[in-house]
Amino acid sequence: MESTQSLKFAGDVSIDKVQVVSSKGFFQDITAQVITVQYYEDMFSPFITGNLIIKESLDLVNLFPFVGEEYVNIEISTPTIEQKIKGTYYIYKMTDRELIGDKEVVYKLHFISTEAIVDSNKKLSKVFYGKVSDLIKPFIVDRMDGLESKKELVVEETSNQTKYISNFWSPVKNIMYLCEHAVNTNNTPNYVFFENRQGFYFVSLDALYASNPYQSFVYDKYNRDSLPGGGDARNTAEDYTRILDLSIPTAFDYLDRINSGMLSSRIHSYDIIRKTYTARNYNIFNKFDKVNHLNPNPLNSSGVIFKNNATIINYPRMFNNFNSFGDATNFKTIQERLSSMKVSNAHQLEITVPGRTDYTVGQKVSVVLNKVEATAASDSDLTDRMFSGFYLVSAINHVISRESHECNMELIKESLQADVNNTEGSK
């Protein structure tokens, strides 16, 4: 079902409701006083955050009063698109308060998911045991041990079990521990936990890489479609695919890839109970053909220089720390997880595009960039195959004013369209 509103241009937006609720249940609609809404999601962070820039002469600070115990109900939509930015969030901070004349004031209200407040106030001390994916739901929904959330929850099935003690950890710290120990049915240990506009996700990057592309973005000199009789016609669908601004903070960093264990590592483990010692090497090419990728080729050539002992991991093992359980550590997967998490954002793009409320983190998108070299009329392919390709939206900042909506996106990828082993592939 789509909105009945008409879409005027790419980036058109409607701030339908911004309502503040005091701790005593007092409601005040402040939609008219909102100048800007920023709504931030991060695939490597557990909660949605954001802020409201308010300009008002109603003395709301004394009216509520604002003391850090308030909630805000937000509803923002893109005309013709069903998915909205909608929810109730906790206002935890006020900053940048400035007087404008005698009767007006501007300030910023910072908000966060209500589950973050629950998480900050719970510490769990008990043993947890079972299939990793089965342990996740109680940490989200349970009133005793969880975030008490009623939001949608997506949990990708794992293939392994674990047993551990939560040493006065919060629910989210427990979930992050489980991310580090989870292995999916494709035997890949790169789980992440995050919240986006749709709910909470406990999924592997491996699964996100295999998802269908949600949108395509192009960086070119497109302005408008031409009409047969002359002039330009607005094509909103094309406008939405255009990148307004683009930057590449770091194209590559070989030394960081070596020092972080992305390319290779050696692990030394010891078990003080069984009096055993183990050493094992790992490199990034071990499983490349056995797991999912955004693009077909690895980031580095087969001739890249690396030594296994460039990164050394010393790791204790705990056989029978729990009776009859065996090893409770993630010794078998820690090297691959370390490499997989690091390589996931080895290539980053930062782009600004016309905003839509259905854009969210975890989505797979296609990016097409053109070569910057001089080209001839006979050139059949002008695509920059190093930086073009499929990416994941790892972070997104919806910047919404009363007039327009822009999305600042951080995109990441762990593989290339170009085959760097074949010099012809980059031409």
Task: Jot down its keywords.
mainly beta, 427 residues, 23 strands
Tally the helices.
Answer: 8
Q: Name the structural class.
A: mainly beta
Distance between the termini: 46 Å
Cα gyration radius (Å): 25 Å
Strand content: 35-45%
| Estimated helix fraction | 10-25%
Spans with pLDDT under 50 lasting ≥5 residues?
A: none
Identify the overall geometry.
globular
Give the overall average pLDDT: 90
Number of strands: 23
Please summarize the sheet with the most strands.
13 strands, mixed
General description of the model:
The chain has eight helices and 23 strands. With 427 residues, it is mostly beta strands. The strands form five sheets. Strands 1, 2, 3, 4, 5, 6, 7, 13, 16, 20, 21, 22 and 23 form a 13-stranded mixed beta sheet that branches. The chain has a three-stranded mixed beta sheet with strand order 9-12-11. Helix 3 packs antiparallel against helix 4 (171-181). The relative contact order is 0.14.
SSE layout and pairings?
Elements: E1 14-21, E2 27-29, E3 34-42, E4 49-56, H1 60-63, E5 70-77, E6 85-100, E7 104-113, H2 114-120, E8 124-131, H3 132-141, E9 153-155, E10 161-169, H4 171-181, E11 191-196, E12 199-204, H5 205-209, E13 213-219, E14 225-226, E15 232-233, H6 236-240, E16 245-247, H7 254-259, E17 264-271, E18 276-283, E19 312-316, H8 334-344, E20 347-354, E21 364-369, E22 389-401, E23 405-413
Parallel strand pairs: 9-12, 13-21, 17-19
Antiparallel strand pairs: 1-2, 1-5, 3-4, 3-22, 4-7, 5-6, 6-7, 8-10, 11-12, 14-15, 16-20, 17-18, 20-23, 21-22, 22-23
Helix pairs in contact: 3-4
